[in-house]
Amino acid sequence: MRAIVTGATNGIGEAIARRLAGAGITVVLVGRSDARLDAARKRIDAEVPGADLVTERADFADLAQVRELARRMLAGPAADIVISNAAVVAPLERRTAEGRSRTLTVNHLAPYLLLRMLAEPARAARFVVVGADPRSLARAPVDLDDLDFTDPERLGEPVELRPFRAYGRTKNMNAMFVYALARRLDGSGITVNGAHPGIIAGTGLDGESPGIAEVVAAHYGLADVDLPGPDVGADTPAWLATSPEVAGVTGRFFVERQAVATADHTTDVGRCDRLWNDSARLTGLPV
Fold first, then answer.
1. N or C, which end of the chain is more exposed by having fewer CB within 10 Å?
2. What is the residue-wise DSSP string for the chain?
3. Confidence band, pLDDT 50/70/90 cuts, at residue 206
4. Domains in the chain, please, with CATH?
5. pTM for this prediction
6. What integer is the mean pLDDT of 189-201?
């Protein structure tokens, strides 16, 4: 078996890759830096002797690199598992070379582009998209009129929480993408599911927004909570990717290995299709 794991150079992504490698699966580690990829490969090698690992560099803030990554993957051995895990909490003013929100691009547009391209060949595979807590995100519907966060005031107060709120909206986009892609791939042999890894320490999400973790912890009452590490966060995504219990299950969202309902605004077909079509235009894919 062969798996592709994005955001695999630290945190939950690396923990997922380590679990899959330990199960004897060839794992393609995807990250934006050769140095970080090499360090992650060495750490996994140390814990899983003989792990079959491949490294692939692609910066998810650059859709041209994502497109080339997909083409390389399609030209090589077919993937049985694709786990979309890469994510970032970036300052709202940080834009990509194309002028788009870095948070939107890394967290939603890049996985949208990658998974759509990898879904083109008809073959059996499991796609898993790592999302976030559906209960808290029920209060953060995607603003379909401002996907790119061009008007920060629409993210509310306090100002210092806006980057995290933008991140939360992209996580709702992930859930909407799961449902929309699953519908379009129904009967193809490719299953698509989402997973909340839990509230996890050591994910590196705040790497581009120093101090945001403390702001979020204080606002949501997590400052004194002892959070579990990435190995706990890897459990549900890795289980979805490999367990016979969920073979053939598609279009669902899981928390602690249990299928759960997400907010109506994430499942509404009209909203999901609008996000799908706008994302297609932003990534240059057919609607």
1. C
2. -EEEEESTTSHHHHHHHHHHHHTT-EEEEEES-HHHHHHHHHHHHHHSTT--EEEEE--TT-HHHHHHHHHHHHHSSPPSEEEE-------TT-B-TTS-BHHHIIIIIHHHHHHHHHTSS---EEEEEE---HHHHTT----TT-TT---GGGG-S-GGGHHHHHHHHHHHHHHHHHHHHHHHHTTTTEEEEEEE--S-SS--GGGGSTTHHHHHHHHTT-TT-----HHHHTHHHHHHHH-GGGTT--SEEEETTEEE---HHHH-HHHHHHHHHHHHHHHT---
3. low
4. 2-281 (3.40.50.720)
5. 0.94
6. 91
